[in-house]
Description:
By secondary structure, this protein is mainly alpha-helical. The chain folds into three domains: 8-123; 145-329, no CATH class; 340-441. The protein has 14 helices and two strands, in the order αααααααααααααββα.
Amino acid sequence: MLETQHDILWTFLTLLFTVYSFFVFVNVVGHCREHKEVNTPLWGGIFGALFIVNILMTRHMFDLVQHDQMGFISWQVLAIFVILLMWGLFFKSQKIEDQSPPFVRGFFFWVTVSTLLAGYTNWLPQQRSDPPPKGGAAISKDLTVEEYAEMGRIIVFGAKQVAGQKAIGKGQCPLCHTFEPGNNIGRCPNLFGVEERSHTRIKEDRYLNQPIKVGEEDPATHVVKGKPMDIDPAYRRQGGPEMTGEDYIRESVMCPSCYVVKGYGKAGDKVSPMPVIVKPPISLSPVEVNAVIAWLQSKDTPGDFSSVTVPLPSAEDTATAEADAGEGEKKIFVTGTESIEDMVNTLGCPVCHTIPGVPGAAGQLGPLLHEKVNAPKRIKDPRYKGKARNTKEYVRESILNPSAYIVFNDEAGELFPDGLMPQDFKNKLSIDALDKLVDFISQTE
């Protein structure tokens, strides 16, 4: 389902509710005309107003995507219950209960049960057995530059878009970056125009000297800044030692702190919060890194791939690339039989969070997961509007409904961005896995 599409069930129900409210209005007006002693302006006005409310709700529902429709439908169900109660009060006050149409009440009961059942089944964590997508991410020996760039796009955004959810692929890039002109979530630099900037930035004095100088080794990644021939041979390009725009983009993903865009780093723009995407939990292969570079180099000039400088995968790379592409699009689901380390790496938690007890989980994009200490304090925070009463309930709520409480970033002096954490973990965790993860995180300090 595309991002702008609606859920068929909720769309059907909202139309049905509007028709139902119109029927009630007509029915009441008809009874008012038959019984002259009834206060027609009063009852007609009440049910006319309720009918208009349902029309406005239906109109609003059509402006929402699937995820938001699921949250809003409860208000329309409440409105229908109010109509039903008022309808019953009308018949009772006029002592004409025997004239109420029973089939309508039966139909409403059926719709109510269907809505509750559908809502419950959508809420439950579920496991799907979809086959790995084919086409966009597949590699063949006669791969074209256009197909290679498309593979990079899929690594960034994923092959499928779910309505109401941010498009995020194996690379996890959209968690922090935006890619269109004028669209900036303020977390990390907007990557529109990155191909053009890659050629000029390597000549700037700030790149040459900050936060480390060209020729110096970054202590975290052991990448030598500005020396493309000194990086891991698996990722090294063919050619001379001179620094190019392609090398700048590759260096940015392999050593984010080699150069930090002004205003987007920690410790005075000396440390980048971006994870190293060639290491766990993202772990892009050399072929995948080149595919992402190909997409970044060509994304701002649709149909024109003349700026792409990365080589196409060789024949011997084909099998590995196909396996990597399939792995990147594999449906993520954690059963609970895995170790905690495997669980959090599979779910990508270390990309954003520092998690005590998990080797390598040192993400800086989101709050530190010291929940044994933090959770009780946050529940008492006046800004907290959730429903948790203890640490485990808070952790569970934070996983399933991250927007229930947005943590304040003391270092930045502002709230962490809402929407940074994916909203679909309920579809990636079994009940056992969720319980296991909640138990572990509740004890971190």
